[in-house]
Amino acid sequence: MEKFQQWYENRFDYQKEWKRRTGNKIIGYFCTYCPEEIYYAFDILPVRILGSHEIQDVTEPHLFAMFCPFCRDVLSQGLKGRYDHLDGITIGQSCLHLRQAYT
Question: What pTM, to 2 d.p., does this model score?
Answer without folding.
Answer: 0.79
